[in-house]
């Protein structure tokens, strides 16, 4: 039997990068496992011993009948039954497969529950991403104490991670398509359930994954991101532009904001770390966007190991155009009848603020999907070491690409009794993966022109 490097199911594996920039690629014998006993991205291909997690057989490889690009994505698993429901009454029975954050949610809210469905390992990606992963696994290396990566482009750099920061870099560099435009909404309901929608038009041009990309052509820029506020009126017209860098010590993230009142584009150095996210009422930090984004330098990252957890997955009900926002946005938490949870293996990474650094979250525990490297759950602790906020990434497979990523992110503040939901798209137009853009479209001068139209 091959040695399962870096994997421990249900236990604790304390793995630190003892020499964080000394590793230059995976050993040849480990790379050979990709596509063999491991999936092309490094997950365990086999199911679990109990048979509650099936083997990975390629994920969704063709869209359901009747689907065409531009539609909301029909649920390929609509006929699946609920296997059982976890509530505060039976939490002890399932505690070993729940995160501290999930247990806290169940205990805090009598109306919260976790409906568990059959596990569907639906994650799939283009063949070129699989091929590139096998190539860069031989060359990828951490630099600047883990604050950057070199020797990688297009693929997942560390498909068999040996430390926590490698697993986080896999999330940061996971495949999310090459380009996309979307219309989404964000809401922050009060304890009584009242809310005002903030509507965004987002664009991303993800250079890292472009076919034929090289490190030289990448020029340290992972992607360009643009976000325009459409409503409410008091915020409408503001535009955020971000250039995300691969090594943020060598070259920090660049950000600009267009202010419609002043008709000026200004640098925005505060679009980083624990500064408040756009129009979030302080309910999420900038680096909580996309479950985690930005620089890694304020935390020490510890790879705890792998564990089986009930995680949000195949959340097509939360994405459906037959559901209205008001049906999702219930008091205290989203409508649990629309959420779907499945048992999956996840990498557990514990992040603790470095000595001498600062962040409003003293500690964060990330639960990362082994099949896609998407962060699915995060527990965030305050400076008193008290659990503060719980984040959920409800994912679907955008099977026309294909890729697996969030359709809705939910960040619950247990201390305030409120939550923020971002990514709502049920009443808006769908993702467009065919937009025609060039890097010139994401220069600050172009931002000014767009804002004045």
Task: Give the SSE map.
Layout: H1 28-31, E1 84-86, H2 91-94, H3 100-108, E2 114-116, H4 127-136, E3 141-143, E4 148-150, H5 164-172, E5 179-187, E6 198-205, H6 215-218, E7 221-231, E8 239-245, E9 254-259, E10 264-267, E11 299-312, H7 325-328, E12 341-353, E13 363-369, E14 375-381, E15 387-398, E16 403-413, E17 418-424, H8 444-452
Antiparallel strand pairs: 1-2, 3-4, 5-6, 5-17, 6-7, 7-8, 8-9, 9-10, 11-12, 12-13, 13-14, 14-15, 15-16, 16-17
CA gyration radius, whole angstroms: 21 Å
Strand content: 25-35%
Instruction: Summarize the helix and strand pattern as letters.
Output: HEHHEHEEHEEHEEEEEHEEEEEEH
* Shape summary: globular
Question: CATH H level: which superfamily?
Answer: Lipoprotein localisation LolA/LolB/LppX
Polypeptide structure, described:
With 453 residues, this protein is an alpha+beta fold. It has a single domain (75-122, 178-452), classed as Lipoprotein localisation LolA/LolB/LppX (outer membrane lipoprotein receptor (LolB), chain A). It contains 8 helices and 17 strands. It has helices at residues 28-31, 91-94, 100-108, 127-136, 164-172, 215-218, 325-328, 444-452, and strands spanning 84-86, 114-116, 141-143, 148-150, 179-187, 198-205, 221-231, 239-245, 254-259, 264-267, 299-312, 341-353, 363-369, 375-381, 387-398, 403-413, 418-424. A hairpin with a 4-residue loop joins strand 3 and strand 4 (148-150).
